[in-house]
């Protein structure tokens, strides 16, 4: 029987308007009632992921910053951290500054940025020089972004040359010549060994769960390491065909409540198995 389900957020758990459907929340609640951990696994920072985890009735464990952090928010306990290479972080900052684009650092539970875009408390402005900041703080992941994807496209080659780190995820318009509706661009950058798969392995070791007894649900290229780690890979219908190659099963899209569709199917399988056990071993 499966012990844990790891779920990506953007393009997976949420629809294109960034909403989690009531049916999806209900299915997650029912799966957890069966004793299966539902764990959000995202490139998003800790505070953001925790809020969504609470909203959809998932477990107290979250994997954030693309696998750089594993956290128990009920105990306020960091279970694993993969701190970003400090010199690489500084180099990336200056690449972003030169191009006059946004530079975002996942630090602790928040995001620290060179250019404030959101004024709702989800971002903190960098108030000191970058050298001092990275010396005094633990940066887990950097995001370089701009509303004009051509700016990011122009510096992507420079980003790729920075030693010790690599691009873990990027906007689809940076990977295809096909005309895309969205004109913004971003690159998520972290240590080379950082991945959702690595974060999953660390948490499974802590919880003494065999990774073969886990499920991963996602839609993007940074979910591939998760698919290669878990026992059963579920890819969203809205995923790229190259990502679907790693699927044990393809579910409906995020606009069609694909997560809920799969979890409902999983619950049915659990019920059938229980019924079979009861028939085989009737109570005296």
What does this structure look like?
This protein is α/β, with parallel strands linked by helices and 284 residues long. It has two domains: 4-81 and 194-280, 3-Layer(aba) Sandwich (Rossmann fold); 86-191, Hypothetical Protein, Haloacid Dehalogenase-like Hydrolase, Chain: A, domain 2 (2-Layer Sandwich). Helices cover 37% and strands 24% of the residues. It contains ten helices and 14 strands. It has helices at 9-13, 22-33, 46-55, 86-99, 130-136, 149-161, 196-207, 224-229, 241-244, 258-280; strands spanning 4-7, 37-41, 61-64, 69-72, 77-81, 102-107, 110-113, 123-125, 139-146, 165-170, 185-191, 214-218, 232-235, 249-250. The strands form two sheets. It has an eight-stranded mixed sheet, with helices on both faces. A six-stranded mixed sheet has the order 8-7-6-9-11-10. α2 (22-33) runs parallel beside α10. The longest helix has 23 residues, at 258-280. The model has no long low-confidence stretch (mean pLDDT 93).
